[in-house]
Specification:
Distance between the termini: 43 Å
Order of helices and strands: EEEH
Shape: globular
Largest sheet: 3 strands, antiparallel
Number of helices: 1
């Protein structure tokens, strides 16, 4: 089989709830098989984006406050 690269984030849809017109998606993001963050949104894309943003914050890739924490 084709092995998936383990240096790209993996998004896992953990839950979806609500009626079709008002659906909520919950996504967990893993990096190198380690859970990083979860996000929610009205679309899978939005949920992934939210999860990615939180993951980046956690990894310190982006800093919302715009300060340097060395």
């Amino acid at each position: 089989g084709r092995s998936i690269s383990n240096n790209v984030p993996q998004y896992v849809l953990t839950k979806q709830e609500g009626p079709p017109h008002n659906r909520k998606f919950y996504v967990d993001v893993f990096f190198e098989y380690e859970f990083l963050a979860s996000g929610e949104g009205s679309t899978k894309k939005a949920a992934q984006k939210e999860a990615a943003k939180k993951a980046c914050e956690k990894l310190g890739l982006i800093n919302i406050q715009g300060e340097n924490n060395d």
